[in-house]
């Protein structure tokens, strides 16, 4: 696997988008490069971006999901990481993207997105988070753990394997190489061995406890079974007859009760009718008044119209007078505003003449004032600059004197403490040596503590061995008790099975549950049938009422049509008369005294006898109004008829649908009963028997029969469930007892295994304790040797070495002295630079002060000249226009003119509005006058019609009519009451007739005469007796069948059982041999063997790397100490050294070799062509650093691309290609060089 490029955005302190292309310059020409920068700048973040793009996590953050993302840069709305890599010649692209809502830093985190694609074809391979990680592992052959151990060696884990003890090294080997599977295999083998052993013991015990029936016992059981079967058939026939007899008695009782209830319902309906008869009489008496209600409303409406029109006319008269006064006032105001506008125009013309002379003077004054202000500002600025520069001159002179004094003090200190200069070189090395001595001292203390703990563990383990022996005895006793309990439970279950088998009870339960599920269907069908029959009766009554009303409206409309035709004929006659009278009026007007009439030739006419044209017009208007009234009534009748027709059609349609519902209910009833009957027939054919009778087809509409059937099903189902539960409970008790016996057997086996394990651990602890004592003695010797070497090293520098207990204070003192000398030297150099800079600055200030003095004098002269010229022009302007402002004066005059014109326009608008309102009110007044005359005429005519209608009615006066007329809401209420009462009587009578017919059918039954002689109580008693006899026979038959079947199965199973025991013995022998080789309870037997092989391979690979790094050392595994390592020093006569005695540089080289070997080991078949080391190299001296860098050059030469994270200066010098990360102070943000920044 080779990393080709990396692109990321907003990760930790690296804000913004960055891209590193390792296939381009400078990385392409130099496979070895360094990632440099101060601590906390974000160097490791580059490696975090690789892990994030591939596995959505980092070594330092285990989870990055929707609810949490600590990797995203603070104050940003998204983060992103994408990596391109090559595996076996094929290029892939993998990325991870996480955003906040709306891309804002304060938005909620959204669900992350990701993608794995083929970079060559851009084909997307996976986009789901979990599946994408698995796909990456498949493509690369590396999971997250292997990736961080083979390609990216994380910070802080470089020497973890080398410095680990044996137990920690075993865990690391499991984690790094996946050898935990061998532990699982060892445990599984052990568990399989124990399971196989238990199964074999169980089969052997089972073979010893089986008993069989004799031939005499079998023959006797068969004879009893045949006899009981014959008796059962006779009992079944008798029970069917008694059930039919009992059902007839129940139907008769139910019919008698229904007749009594029906008669009571009918009487109740009739009583309700009698109680409400007075209200119904009021409704009948109000019918004549209801016919006159429309005409009465028209009369009231015409009276109201006259009153409203009179009020409108009076109001209009008052408003007309008000409009006259408003119009006059508006006319006077218009004249006044027009004169004021002319006056202001004259004043404006005079003002303009003066302003034309003032404007040039104002312009000159403005220019001179600007020049004057600029000159004064310049003078002020020059004076301020001069003051500031003189102050700076004084301050700078004082600063130079202060710097000279400080420089002298620092020089004296450096000269006096010249010896502290060399401390920086040696303190780090000495501190490292002290750390090694203390580590050995700590290790020695820990080893002594471990020895004490081991002794205590020995005592504890001896106690555990004794406890395990006691526990083994207890578990054996418990097992014997559980076997006895299991046998008792099995006997009880077998007894219940013989009485009522679980299969027969389940069949009865299934049938009753099936019936119970369909009882709701029967209830719903019966309810729907009853509701449909009731709706039919109600809708038929409604249909009759609506048809009657429709006929009545049709007759009334025909009368209105006849009246309309008569009035229309009369109107046409009047129109012809009016037209004729108009023609005659023309000729009459042309007559002259003494001339003959052109129509008749007569010279004398009685003109006063001619018909008055005004009377004809009045008659015509009355006829028109009468026609309108008739037409309105006809329209209302037509609308009522139109509204009734769809109601009648709707009722008819609903009647059809309801009839269909009745027929469908009958069909559904029959189908459901057929289903229930068929299931019952199947049940009976299989030997079942139930005390529940199905309803018949004729009982549709009989709610009591359906309810009785429902209750019977529920009662019988509860009884069957109770019996079934008893059988199941006994079975469960037996199964629990069997389970407890099995558990006791397992616990007994575990107790035996625990005893063996405790004894083995006691032996192991004894051996381990002696090994720890030996190791403690070796550690003490190593610590003494290291401390002696350190004191000799310090003495070589002519410095007296302190005792070990005072070494920290000594180091602190020397470190403080070294830091103070270095800091003083830096301050001295800085003061020298400051002194040179400040002297140059003082010379420049002297030159600038001289220039400022000359500029100030010239500026003062310019200010005096401008002041004199401005005073002269200002005086001329004041004499002409005073202190008035031209702009404001002109604006004021324009505003005055604008206000006057606006007021004139407002006055004109007001006058026009008053004139329009006056004209509008005149029109309204005339209209109201005409309208009042017309409505008064209608009022008179309506009064005449009302008087005629009242005269032809049974009412003498208006008061009689009003007293007979009921409220419309009360009328509707009484009509609804009448309808409800009539329907109740019809419904009650129908139900009573149906019930009596049903009772007659029962009396006509062919066996009614015979059945009626036996009381119902005796029939019920006989039915129960036969049911009990059948159940008793069924229980006996079931018990005999169960005994015969059990005996048959036992005879068959006896042969099969020996075959199973033989097969199980073969399996146990195989797994027993495998368990002796690799099986163990905690999985350590096979795991230690596998870890030993893995460690041998790792040492081999590490030694190959050590040959490249440094030929002096070679790793070897201790032959007598499990997973412990030691180092062979070839430069000191092949002496063996403990890994804890290695110096810092030596530990680094060996750790690097182990890290590279682990990289090769965990990468399996994947070629690793990129390697990133996150290690500071800070503990290495110059020689060891050269060795490490040479080793990295050798790795680079082998074709690997290597990136090293460090801040060591020597490494920076040796590695020409550097990726620098710069940290911005105080901002918490870092950046790389600009060439790696991605711009939008």
TrEMBL record:
GO terms for molecular function: ATP hydrolysis activity; exonuclease activity. Residues 211-238, 561-623, 835-869 form a coiled coil. Pfam families: SbcC_Walker_B (PF13558). The keyword Nuclease applies. InterPro entries: P-loop_NTPase. One of its GO terms (biological process) is double-strand break repair. It comes from the Bacteria. The keyword Secreted does not apply. Keywords: Coiled coil, Exonuclease, Hydrolase, Nuclease. Residues 310-336, 996-1017 are annotated as: Disordered. This is Exonuclease SbcC. Residues 316-335, 998-1008 have a biased composition (Basic and acidic residues). SUPFAM superfamilies: P-loop containing nucleoside triphosphate hydrolases.
């Amino acid at each position: 696997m080779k990393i080709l490029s990396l692109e990321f955005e907003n990760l930790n302190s690296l804000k913004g988008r960055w891209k590193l292309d390792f296939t381009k310059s400078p990385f392409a020409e130099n496979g070895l490069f360094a990632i440099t920068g101060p601590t906390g700048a974000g160097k490791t973040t580059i490696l975090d971006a690789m892990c994030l793009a591939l596995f959505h996590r980092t070594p330092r953050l285990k989870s990055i999901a929707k609810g949490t993302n600590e990797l995203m840069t603070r104050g940003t709305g998204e983060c992103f990481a994408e990596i391109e890599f090559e595996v076996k010649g094929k290029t892939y692209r993998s990325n991870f993207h996480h955003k906040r809502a709306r891309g804002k830093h304060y938005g909620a985190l959204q669900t992350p997105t990701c993608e794995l694609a083929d970079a060559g074809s851009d084909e997307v391979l996976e986009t789901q988070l979990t599946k994408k990680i698995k796909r990456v592992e498949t493509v690369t052959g590396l999971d997250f753990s292997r990736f961080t151990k083979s390609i990216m060696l994380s910070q802080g884990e470089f020497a973890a394997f080398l410095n680990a003890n044996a137990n920690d090294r075993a865990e690391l080997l499991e984690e790094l190489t996946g050898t935990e599977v061998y532990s699982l295999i060892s445990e599984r083998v052990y568990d399989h061995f124990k399971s196989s052993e238990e199964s074999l013991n169980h089969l052997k015990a089972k073979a010893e406890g089986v008993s069989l029936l004799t031939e005499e016992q079998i023959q006797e059981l068969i004879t009893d079974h045949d006899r009981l079967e014959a008796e059962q058939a006779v009992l079944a026939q008798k029970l069917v007859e008694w059930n039919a007899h009992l059902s007839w008695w129940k139907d008769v009782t139910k019919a008698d009760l229904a007749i009594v209830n029906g008669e009571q319902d009918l009487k109740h309906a009739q009583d309700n009718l009698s109680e409400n008869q007075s209200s119904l009489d009021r409704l009948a008496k109000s019918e004549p008044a209801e016919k006159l209600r429309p005409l009465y409303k028209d009369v009231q409406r015409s009276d109201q119209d006259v009153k409203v029109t009179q009020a409108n006319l009076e109001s209009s008269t008052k408003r007309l007078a008000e409009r006259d006064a408003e119009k006059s006032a508006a006319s006077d105001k218009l004249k006044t505003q027009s004169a004021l506008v002319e006056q202001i125009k004259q004043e404006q013309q005079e003002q303009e003449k003066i302003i034309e002379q003032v404007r040039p003077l104002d312009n000159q004054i403005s220019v001179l004032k600007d020049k004057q202000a600029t000159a004064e500002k310049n003078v002020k600025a020059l004076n301020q600059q001069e003051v500031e520069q003189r102050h700076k001159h004084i301050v700078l002179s004082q600063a130079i004197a202060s710097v000279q004094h400080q420089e002298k003090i620092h020089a004296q200190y450096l000269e006096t403490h010249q010896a502290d200069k060399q401390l920086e070189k040696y303190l780090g090395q000495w501190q490292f040596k002290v750390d090694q001595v203390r580590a050995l001292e700590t290790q020695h203390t820990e080893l002594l503590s471990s020895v004490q703990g081991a002794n205590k563990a020995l005592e504890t383990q001896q106690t555990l061995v004794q406890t395990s022996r006691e526990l083994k005895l207890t578990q054996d006793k418990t097992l014997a008790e559980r076997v006895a309990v299991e046998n008792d439970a099995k006997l009880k279950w077998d007894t219940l099975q013989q009485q009522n088998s679980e299969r027969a009870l389940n069949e009865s339960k299934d049938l009753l549950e099936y019936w119970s599920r369909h009882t709701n269907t029967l209830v719903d069908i019966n309810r729907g049938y009853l509701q449909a029959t009731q709706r039919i009766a109600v809708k038929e009554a409604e249909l009759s009422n609506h048809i009657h009303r429709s006929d009545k409206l049709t007759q009334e409309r025909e009368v209105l049509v006849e009246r309309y035709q008569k009035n229309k004929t009369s109107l046409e006659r009047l129109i012809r008369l009016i037209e004729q009278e108009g023609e005659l009026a023309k000729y009459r007007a042309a007559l002259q005294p003494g001339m003959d009439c052109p129509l008749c030739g007569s010279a004398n006419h009685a003109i006063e006898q001619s018909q008055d044209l005004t009377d004809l017009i009045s008659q015509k208007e009355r006829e028109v109004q009468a026609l309108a009234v008739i037409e309105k009534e006809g329209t209302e009748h037509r609308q009522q008829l139109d509204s009734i027709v769809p109601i009648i059609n709707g009722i008819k349609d609903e009647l059809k649908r309801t009839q269909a519902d009745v027929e469908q209910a009958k069909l559904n009833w029959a189908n459901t009963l057929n289903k229930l009957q068929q299931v019952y027939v199947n049940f009976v054919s299989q030997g079942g028997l139930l005390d529940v009778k199905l309803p018949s087809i004729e009982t549709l509409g009989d709610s009591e029969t359906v309810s009785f059937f429902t209750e019977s099903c529920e009662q019988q189902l509860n009884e069957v469930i109770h019996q079934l539960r008893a059988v199941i409970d006994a079975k469960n008790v037996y199964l629990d007892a069997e389970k407890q016996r099995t558990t006791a057997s397992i616990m007994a086996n575990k107790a035996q295994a625990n005893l063996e394990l405790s004894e083995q651990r006691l032996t192991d602890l004894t051996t381990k304790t002696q090994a720890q004592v030996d190791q403690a003695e070796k550690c003490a010797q190593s610590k003494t040797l290291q401390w002696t070497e350190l004191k000799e090293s310090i003495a070589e520098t002519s410095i007296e070495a302190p005792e070990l207990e005072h070494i920290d204070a000594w180091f602190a003192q020397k470190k403080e002295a070294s830091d103070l000398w270095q800091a003083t030297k830096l301050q001295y150099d800085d003061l020298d630079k400051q002194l040179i800079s400040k002297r140059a600055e003082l010379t420049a200030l002297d030159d600038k002060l001289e220039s400022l003095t000359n500029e100030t004098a010239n500026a003062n002269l310019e200010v005096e000249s401008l002041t004199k010229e401005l005073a002269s022009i200002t005086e001329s302007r004041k004499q002409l226009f005073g202190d008035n402002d031209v702009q404001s004066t002109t604006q004021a005059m324009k505003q005055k003119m604008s206000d006057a014109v606006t007021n004139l326009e407002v006055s004109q608008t007001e006058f026009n509005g008053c004139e329009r309102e006056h004209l509008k009110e005149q029109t309204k007044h005339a209209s109201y006058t005409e309208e009042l005359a017309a409505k008064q005429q209608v009022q008179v005519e309506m009064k005449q019609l009302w008087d005629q209608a009242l005269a032809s009615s049974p009412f003498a006066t208006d008061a009689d009519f009003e007293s007979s007329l009921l409220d419309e809401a009360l009328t509707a209420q009484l009509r609804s009451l009448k309808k409800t009462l009539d329907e109740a009587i019809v419904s009650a009578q129908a139900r009573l007739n149906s019930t009596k017919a049903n009772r007659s059918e029962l009396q006509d039954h062919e066996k009614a005469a015979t059945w009626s002689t036996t009381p119902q109580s005796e029939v019920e008693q006989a039915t129960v007796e036969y049911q009990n006899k059948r159940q008793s026979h069924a229980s006996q038959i079931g018990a005999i069948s169960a005994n015969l079947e059990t005996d048959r199965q036992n005879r068959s199973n006896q042969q099969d059982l020996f075959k199973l025991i033989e097969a199980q013995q073969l399996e146990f022998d195989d797994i027993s041999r495998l368990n002796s080789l690799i099986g163990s309870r905690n999985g350590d037997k096979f795991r230690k063997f596998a870890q030993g092989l893995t460690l041998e391979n790792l040492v081999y690979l590490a030694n190959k790397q050590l040959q490249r790094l440094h030929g002096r050392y070679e790793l070897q595994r201790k032959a007598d100490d499990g997973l412990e390592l030691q180092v062979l020093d070839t430069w000191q006569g092949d002496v063996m050294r403990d890994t804890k005695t290695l110096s810092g540089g030596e530990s680094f080289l060996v750790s690097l070799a182990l890290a590279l070997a682990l990289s090769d080991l965990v990468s399996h078949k994947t070629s690793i062509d990129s390697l990133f080391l996150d290690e500071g190299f800070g503990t290495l001296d110059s020689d060891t650093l050269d060795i490490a860098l040479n080793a990295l050059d050798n790795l680079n030469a082998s074709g690997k691309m290597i990136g090293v994270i460090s801040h060591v200066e020597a490494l920076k010098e040796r590695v020409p290609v550097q990726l620098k990360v710069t940290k911005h102070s105080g901002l918490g943000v870092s950046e790389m060089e600009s060439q790696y920044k991605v711009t939008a």
